Amino acid sequence: MTIRRFTNEDAPAAAAVIAKTLRTTNSKDYSPDEIEAAVRSLSPDKLIERAGWMHFYVVCDAEQIIGCGGIGPYWGKEDESSLFTIFVHPDYQGKGIGRMIIGTLEQDEFFLRAKRIEIPSSITAVAFYQKMGYDYKNGKAEPDEDRYYPLEKFRS
Predict the structure, then answer these.
(1) Would residue 128 count as lying in a domain?
(2) Which domain holds residue 82?
(3) Quick check: is 29 in a domain?
(4) Read out DSSP for 116-132?
(5) Which neighbouring-strand residues pair with 87?
């Protein structure tokens, strides 16, 4: 497995991994309408747009994209960042790929410059991010209006 920066040519394959993951793994926590809205919001064009303001990475097994994740500034702040769009193809889940993505994002300049890193976690991923050292923002274990849990980690 290798991890590298996203290129625009990766957008269709990365979007396909995201759609498969949402429709498979996340479907136990979200309605079909919510899943399809999320799929539309993470289309190839939207991924290219996101990659314009965040550092976006893909994980490959040989030439096949099997995961992705990004990090960018939190609302333009210099001392806060956010993790985004972290997905692992269902066939590869539980094999350390998510840890590999988080490890890469936590070596990125957006992470290293930040004192606080936030992630809007799906219901499905809360336990995974907690294993990675993220906890409920302000100690509140409640989802936001979009049914995501704001999680955060502080660096000293």
Answers:
(1) no
(2) 2-119
(3) yes
(4) EEEEEE-GGGHHHHHHT
(5) 68
Kindly report the pTM of this predicted structure: 0.93
CATH label of the domain that carries residue 33? 3.40.630.30
Quote the DSSP letter at residue 148: -
First to last CA, the chain: 31
- Contact in structure between 108 and 125 (CB atoms under 8 Å): no
Is 127 inside any structural domain? no
DSSP state of 54: S
Residue 124 in tokens: 């499905």
Give the pLDDT confidence of 31-59 residue by residue, as tens digits: 999 999 999 999 999 999 999 999 999 99
Inside any domain, residue 133: no
Helices (H), 25-131: 32-41, 44-51, 97-105, 109-112, 126-131
Query: How many domains does one find in the chain?
Result: 1
Q: What is the pLDDT of residues 79-128, one digit of tens each?
A: 999 999 999 999 999 999 999 999 999 999 999 999 999 999 999 999 99
For helices 11-24 and 32-41, give the axis angle rounded to 10 degrees: 170
Q: Which residues contact 134 (CB under 8 A, 6 or more apart)?
A: 117, 119, 121, 151, 152, 153
